């Protein structure tokens, strides 16, 4: 994964985690078994290093029960070919090894091994469950991978959602730059997957949302500004909140005209002095300008920016401040439940889903004062 610590105002202190414990995802699965498959696609309308743009497509889906559960290492293997489908097995191993060396430096080897062998809910290539299901497109953070929030994607699939993701690639190479051209390239990837969803037998494309973390939580807003097929947006501490100046230059992005409901899960407020050091963009707020859509802003007090990506919690040698690793894991699980309930409201018309977002934390089994919920209703 690609770190932008300065950009997202994060400072990590030291607090070692148990070397043998894999990242605990505290939610129980829904009524459905989960299948997982990948598809090698390309977008011939766009160039990527002189070739058609690769779109490694990961799909989590409601499945018929049965089969051998995947290990987390099965997700890691996707890194070896996420922008080049022609790599040999040896070349893929080399890419994965280099990625792990860069990302997990400082993490105990036995802890990494425990994460890699951790069993998942998904079964590779499981038989798809008959029926039509709402669709969620997932857009990762800057230069990140399709399994960045695999636990949350499995959770949604177990509750009857068809989830589709692709890696966050640069315009002409693997790594993205934090500029508008790369954000728009990722938004175009989202629209590609929206079109692909129309072809899937399990998909109900009339009920489609796009979720994104960090940079992906800005690319999805750009995509929605040009694609009316997107009916709901989820932003996991998305850059749409932190890049107002850049976004104000986008001619087709008119926040006041967006009619797409948005759930924004935010990191805890940063100390004033940290803001002085890293100088966040406070020139405006896209969220407040979205007067034509309901905007739910939920501040998760136990979570910093990288805590919204479960692969960071699993693999990076993160350290924690006043909140423990277990408290962060509990908050991550709660975030997934918020996402599920928002989608139930936005795509399934369940009023109880929206009501869940505004309940006090202790009313939904969370620690008191761990979340602050705000609703900015449409036409305000």
What this model shows, in words?
The protein has helices at residues 5-8, 72-76, 89-103, 109-116, 150-158, 180-197, 216-226, 244-247, 272-278, 286-289, 310-315, 325-348, 351-357, and strands spanning 33-48, 51-63, 69-71, 119-124, 133-139, 162-165, 203-213, 232-236, 262-266, 295-300, 371-376. With 380 residues, the protein is of the alpha/beta class. It has a single domain, classed as Alpha/Beta hydrolase fold, catalytic domain (Rossmann fold), CATH 3.40.50. The protein has an eleven-stranded mixed beta sheet, with helices on both faces. Helix 7 links the parallel strand 7 (203-213) and strand 8. Helix 6 packs across helix 7 and helix 12 (325-348) runs antiparallel to helix 13 (351-357). It is globular. The protein starts with a helix and ends with a strand. The model is unreliable at 1-19 (pLDDT under 50).
Cα end-to-end separation = 39 Å
CATH topology: Rossmann fold
* SS content category: alpha/beta
Order of helices and strands: HEEEHHHEEHEHEHEHEHHEHHHE
